[in-house]
Amino acid sequence: MRSFLPLLLLLPVLAGSLFVSFGTDWAPADAWVVREDNQDSAGARRAAGDAQAQASLLASGAKQLKEGTAALQEGAQPLGQGVQELAQGSAQLADGLVELQAGTGRLGEGATRVADGVGQAVDQIIGVNAVRGQIIEAIDSTLGDLRGKQSPEANQLRGRLQELKAQAETFELDQQLAGQLVELKNGSRDIANQLHVPGYAYHDGIYQATKGAQELRAGLQELEAGVAEAQKGVAELDGGAGRISQMAQDNSRNVGNIQRVLPTAAPGEPVFDPAVTVLLSGLLLLGGAVLARLGRWTGLAGVIGLGAAGAGVGYLLTDIINPLSVAACVAGAGAGWAAVRVLAAGWGRKAAVISSGVLGVAQTGLSAWLWSEAAAGEVVHRAVMAVANLFPMNWTVSAITTSGNGGHAPLIWVSLGVLAAILLAGLCAPAAREKQPSLAIEP
Length: 443
Hints:
Blueprint (H helix, E strand, L loop, with lengths): L6 H17 L14 H109 L5 H19 L4 H22 L4 H61 L12 H18 L4 H23 L4 H25 L1 H27 L6 H7 L3 H14 L3 H20 L15
Helix pairs in contact: 1-10, 1-12, 2-3, 2-4, 2-5, 6-7, 6-8, 6-9, 6-11, 7-8, 8-9, 8-11, 8-12, 9-11, 11-12
Keywords: Membrane, Signal, Transmembrane, Transmembrane helix
């Protein structure tokens, strides 16, 4: 018969689930909404919840914006220094190329004069080879005229002419040397043209390089001025981002204040967040399950102490505490203690530990999802509510949330009634089936 003892746990949660899910129009939001103001305050609460979520996103985004602009401002400083150094270098390059262009002009003038002189000299040297025969012929004609004259002056002139003829006959410009002189003439002229005449590669290259360096200097000077303006803009942007971040935080805080003054709880009292209640309920049920190792009355005393401690934790987190919230915490811890005690009496301690662990994970996940959806203003299907109400944890969350927020009064009493029935089943349950002194449960 002991195998059917766990049905004692199913009866109260099943009855409560059927009553709430199909006998009333209660919803999870009734845990923080007074029924008389249900329609108006629920809509306002939903809108305020949406605003709070958006305000939180805005605050997070504004904080990231502030961090990004701070990083941008930090990176803009070395950029400005680099552009300034680059502008100074381009100015020096432009000045150097201007001087190079001027020096090239002066060098081109000198090279042109050199090329003119070389050209004249080469032309004269090469021309000598062409008139050599004429010189020899003129010398022979002059010697013929002096033939027969024996005066000292004629003899002296005749000797000089014969020497000059001998030199002229032996002088003949080599073709290779003549070609080299022509190359010298052409090369000197090409150098002069490259340095001095527009249209030649070197002359135009120097001009274009100088012009490009001057344009680069002008462009970098404009860039330097633009970067300076950009740095000022980044500083202003960083300041604006800081103000936006502060405004976003203020907005989030103001929306939270709006939520607190909505008629969802007693005026001036903060809202007991369901997310906090889910966490607190899970800890109470877990602590109660651990206390199931103790005897009946020892365990019950531990449950009362655990519930009081849980109510104290809730007060630290939410600044809310009242007799109903303390009773709800004690009932939640007692439900965990009673459930494991009944399961151990019916199926044994090992099976109780395993089954309570599996059911604990399942009800924690289901309750967390259901109450987060409800807190976000989403409509929870009644079938999902019915399933969730088959677990003690959902009744614990409902009891603590409703008592803390001053919600729909009947909901708190039904929740406490279901938890009290589970606790009563635990008190009535006999000792565990296995006889292990270290884990014995006193009758």
